[in-house]
Amino acid sequence: MSFRVHVRVMPRTGLLDPQGLAGAHALSVLGFAGAGDVRVGRAIELELAAGSREEAESEARRMCERLLANPVTEDFQLDVEAR
Amino acid sequence: MTRRVAVVRFPGSNCDADALRAAQTVGADARYVWHRDTSLGGADVVILPGGFSYGDYLRSGAIARFSPIMAAVRRHAEAGGPVLGICNGFQILCEAHLLPGALMRNAGLTFVSRPVPVTVERTTTPFTSAYAPGTRLSLPVAHGEGRFAATEDVARMLEAEGRVVLRYVKGDPAAEPGNPNGSAHDIAGISNAEGNVVGIMPHPERVTNPLLGSDEGLGFFTSFMTAASPTPPMESASR
What we know:
The complex is a heterodimer.
Chain A: E1 2-11, H1 18-29, E2 42-49, H2 53-68, E3 74-82
Antiparallel strand pairs in A: 1-2, 1-3
Chain B: E1 4-9, H1 16-25, E2 29-34, E3 45-48, H2 69-78, E4 83-86, H3 88-95, E5 102-104, E6 112-120, E7 136-143, E8 147-149, H4 152-160, E9 164-168, E10 187-191, E11 197-200, H5 219-226, H6 234-237
Parallel strand pairs in B: 1-2, 1-3, 3-4, 4-11
Antiparallel strand pairs in B: 5-8, 6-7, 6-9, 9-10, 10-11
């Protein structure tokens, strides 16, 4: 079976996110007065062949823990979509 | 007795020649080792130089840590062999979990390239033994992702165990800014518990000749030449 894996990697809450702060500042300069708490992360998509959805999720989780996210500074979310 | 030094080159390393030259300046038998190699060639000391390995893709050092040579670097480190990571090399050591914490985007977002004042705090390492504790140095930094981040527990442990090797300090006059990147506890460099693995953001290899303005960084290289005989690396014993 083939799956499309969507990975969302975000800086851990509580850690300074200067990119988010710069984004928030720029939005306010542009007049978007209601915008606040901007966080900037990373989205990764990949194809994954696996026997089942559970297997795909577990494999994707291992990828995140090993390479795609830094366990010290980042959190990740997974979404596995059957093709 | 001379020391054999391996300077590891990754695709995107750009301070490798400076590191090699600095090691040769103090009389070391310094050679390059390619990241796809699996042996350090019997080196006593390993230097992971600065640069942008793998274009800093994903995260600085995230891909380099899986290079084939890193297994040998890990064995060398775990056997007590000296390992120095400079800038990108520090980032790689953190990603490889040979040092705790991580290096994140500078708080000011800009790439910072200028000399910064630091003090040498831990001198019981093979790279800082030539300095007296508290020695103040001016060393160049050149990085966009040098903000040391760790949980407060880890930062406190580093302080309690005396593992902060270099710390950013205010300049003299104090109007000169200190900490250039927002690092936790003004940390510019740390070591592992044993002291044989050291990671620093500043570039001592760039200040090793008075002709280029300063040789304040030379001590990082004379240290491993004069320190007690290093632990023989495991790979030569197992050959």
